[in-house]
Structures are given as structure tokens and as C-alpha cells.
Write a structure and sequence with these properties.
Length: 94
């Protein structure tokens, strides 16, 4: 005949081992998800930095006169908005 106390202890040990294994698996899955989130965030940050730098370089090019058409267009727009057409014509002629 099976000793019921030993059998019950065996069942309890098996249940505890299963719970420990499940907890370990959950911990590993959570770690993998966290690593994936961190990698995605790093990629997003790098892309944002690249876009900001490219935009900044484009604006610097427009402002420093490397692109004369863009600079002239900005000046014309400013003159039109401020109503300084007469002043603009006198400086263009002179």
C-alpha cells in the first residue's frame, strides 16, 4: 500500500517545482520584452536625432546664404509682410 503522507509530500514538491519553473519562464519573457522595448526606443531616439540634425543643417544653409534663392525668398517675404517694398527697391537699385 502507498504511504499517503509520502505521496502527498511528493505531489506538493511537484507543484512547487512547477510554480518555480513557470515563474522563471515569466521572468525571462519579461526580460526579453524589456530589452526589445529598450532597443526600439534607442532606434527612435537615433532617428529623431538624425532628423533634427538634418533639419538644423538645412536651416543653417538657408540662413548663412549658401542657398541664395532661399535667402532671397525669405527677404522678399519679409519685405512684403512689413510693407518695406520702397526700402527694398531703393536698396536693390543702389
Amino acid at each position: 500500500m502507498i504511504n499517503t503522507v509520502n505521496f502527498t509530500n511528493f505531489i506538493n514538491i511537484v507543484v512547487v517545482v512547477e510554480v518555480v519553473v513557470v515563474v522563471k519562464v515569466v521572468v525571462v519573457v519579461v526580460k526579453v520584452v524589456v530589452v526589445l522595448i529598450v532597443v526600439v526606443l534607442e532606434v527612435v531616439v537615433v532617428v529623431v536625432i538624425i532628423v533634427v540634425v538634418e533639419t538644423w543643417q538645412t536651416r543653417v544653409t538657408e540662413i548663412d546664404g549658401s542657398d541664395p534663392d532661399a535667402l532671397q525668398e525669405k527677404a522678399d517675404n519679409f519685405r512684403t509682410r512689413t510693407g518695406n517694398d520702397m526700402e527694398a527697391k531703393s536698396t536693390d537699385d543702389g
